[in-house]
Amino acid sequence: MLMPSIFGENLMDDFFDYSFGGGRSSELMRTDIRDNGNAYEITMNMPGVKKEDVKAELKNGYLTISASSNTSKDEKDGEGRYIRRERYCGTCSRSFYVGEHVTQQDIRARFENGTLILDVPKEDQKVVEENHYIAIE
How far is CA 18 from CA 69, 84, 125, 133, in A? Predict the structure, then answer.
């Protein structure tokens, strides 16, 4: 079924949007990766997520960042009856391959104002030996 749209957005987006804190799910975990020469700086936006709800795990060369959120909005009228009661709960994660030789001690992470910043060193590239052929006459 086709839904009408205004300015490229579906009219039902707000009605069915149950992402973290009621924001658009596309805004959560938006990531920028910058090459700083010998390391990568990964900047990940996590609006509405607390530092204690963010986890970073390194396993088999993959760095996985996960975040969880559990918020509620309660509004009552003057007599204590609920007018609106909404709850948002969920998790999301992203994974990046950083290399087999990168260790947890090599990665630096900090969380500032809803933004996670990770400094990940580049994995040493193994030198592939070139084949040297002998010309046969």
Answer: 11, 15, 43, 62
Per the structure block, which two tokens stand in for 122?
């580049």
- Tell me the pLDDT tens digit for each residue of 64-76: 999 987 776 666 6
Prediction pTM value: 0.63
Interior angle at CA 127, CA 122 and CA 132, nearest 5: 160
N- to C-terminal Cα separation, the chain: 71
58 beta partners: 63
- From 28, 22, 33, select the one nearest 67 (Cα to Cα): 28
Burial, 79: exposed, middle or buried (Cβ in 10 Å; 0-12, 13-18, 19+)? exposed
> CB–CB of 108/85 below 8 Å?
no
